[in-house]
Amino acid sequence: MCGIIAYTGSKPASPILIEGLKVLEYRGYDSAGLYVPGAGVHKAVGPVQALADAIPGLLPGTAGMGHTRWATHGNPSLENAHPHTDQNGTIFLVHNGIIENYMELREKLVEQGHTFTSETDTEVLAHLIGVEYEATHDMPASVVAALQSVRGTYGLAVMAEDTPDTIVAVRLGSPIAIGVKEQEFFVASDAAPMLRHTNSIIYLEDGEYAVVTPQGYTVYSFSHRQQEREPEIVDMQVEDADKNGHPHYMLKEILEVPSVLENGTRGRILMKEGNAKLGGLVDREDVLRDVERLIIVGCGSAYYAGMVGKLLVEDIVGIPAHVELASEFRHRSMLADENTAVLAISQSGETADTLAAIREAKRRGLTTVGIVNVVGSSIARETDVGIYNHAGPEMSVASTKGFLSQLELLVLFALYMGRMRSLTQAQGAELAMELLRLPEKVRMILSERHKLKLLAEEYLGYDDFLFIGRAYNLPTAFEGALKLKEVSYVHAEGYGAGEMKHGPIAMIDDIFPTVGIMPLDSTYSKMRSSIEEIRARDGKVIIVTTDGNTGVERLADDVVYIPETKECLTPILANVPLQLFAYYMGVLRGVNVDRPRNLAKSVTVE
Ligand code: M6R
Fold this sequence. Notes:
Elements: E1 3-8, H1 13-23, E2 31-36, E3 40-45, H2 48-54, E4 63-69, E5 84-85, E6 91-99, H3 102-111, H4 122-136, H5 139-147, E7 152-160, E8 167-172, E9 177-181, E10 184-188, E11 200-203, E12 208-213, E13 216-221, E14 226-227, E15 232-233, H6 249-255, H7 257-265, E16 269-270, E17 275-276, H8 285-290, E18 293-298, H9 300-317, E19 321-325, H10 326-329, E20 340-346, H11 352-363, E21 367-372, H12 378-382, E22 385-388, H13 401-419, H14 425-447, H15 449-458, E23 464-469, H16 474-488, E24 491-496, E25 514-517, H17 524-535, E26 541-546, E27 558-562, H18 570-588
Parallel strand pairs: 18-19, 18-20, 20-21, 21-22, 23-24, 23-25, 25-26, 26-27
Antiparallel strand pairs: 1-4, 1-10, 2-3, 2-4, 5-6, 6-7, 7-8, 8-12, 9-10, 9-11, 11-15, 12-13, 13-14, 16-17
Helix pairs in contact: 3-4, 4-5, 7-13, 7-14, 9-13, 9-16, 13-14, 13-18, 14-18, 15-18, 16-18
This protein binds 5-amino-5-deoxy-1-O-phosphono-D-mannitol.
């Protein structure tokens, strides 16, 4: 959470910083600020545009840094907005992460006569660095020395007033990347805000810092040992991070799903062998062959993808699989032996809880596998092996294409693992063939998206929704409810249809609609019974079912059809109309669906 961008070069810095901050808004949008040596600190509460409006024209200065905040300590206010400065007003910094012992550090500094202007944890860092800098006038040494007393996580960019074109960037637990261009250098939380300028990116490792000037960059360990680090070319286009004429990233990203699914399988299907070719897993092929149990971890939508993954692995691979909220994984006894592998699912690759779960799994000697979208992200780098989604940047806070791509990759993973065991060539080929048909089937759903808009208009006045499903579409019910909640602020709950009579049916009346996800599959007749029970209590019902199943119209107020597919692939199709429904509900209710309140895209705090 929180986005950082810094620049040093020959061009005016402020437009570069503002433009970069706009790209980074998906990391937080409670307040924004920037520092340009010679032009001072400028801050505004709210989105980056408020900051742009608050700046009096083009600021002089060819270096500087900016920050967009997702509030952790202290509410969104001008005082709490970054950059923060030290006691003497000579050190300026922007921070992403959490300083756990900031209270005790702050109390000590107050005893020494320091005064603080914000409620943030970050401000102590500026003061601590300022103390060191006053004594040594050596920026990198001061930063590292100050951080010795700090407990927590940080991605930092630090500047001193008297070395105006030097940026010290530091990483421990929160990502920091450096963009390299001829005599122009960038520091940012991720590659996206730098893409307009360069694709040449270096990712700092934990415990490293970099000194960046217009003449170049040098990376060091915290023990000041120089590290050899060449930039990697990030295969991402600027347009990937643009809206391309769509009103919102969320809609653009839903419309990209067919091509995302195509990218996910490109070069990865061995039809003759009925297998998947997953280059990212070959390093541990022997170990994966012997895996007897899989634990899948993730948060939010990635966790729901993991729920589908569990079913896929048990059905296709034939080994037990468990799915865990990454945030719970470390807080219980883990019964795992050397034949257990841990699979982490994360779009951003930076989710702190998922990263912590992976680190815990590695500490216990378990093999770790990642399904990650953002290339070079922490989870991608720290898992032993992995598969990239190649879904392109997902800018909207709500995961749409990223989630559906995770489902697709889980199918490929299950296919690959299954073929190492008892899945036959014919079974594998049949699954792969149907997987390849999905992009076209999603296109068919998208071509009828106006119907979802009409549905949203019809249900706009309802404040509570229940989403129910079973088996492969129980996670769809959870995900459908999550999507509606986060982008429209409408209360929604996901529930197992079979659980209705154990409590939730008590809520049903004519103003509490139910969305039943019930393609024609092995649980269809059970779903029908649950829907009958809801109808008997005057509940309004929207049913998502398979094309041609018109008989169901008798049971529903509204029906949404999806093309037929294999049962294990139905979540990939059934989620698409639910994403569109949530999108239109959010837009019609006046929510900024790309930036819902209180949320951030990349959740880098535990
Ligand atoms: O980047 P990740 O996939 O690790 O993110 C996990 C969750 O934070 C994410 O899925 C979140 O729940 C989204 N807002 C859902 O739309």
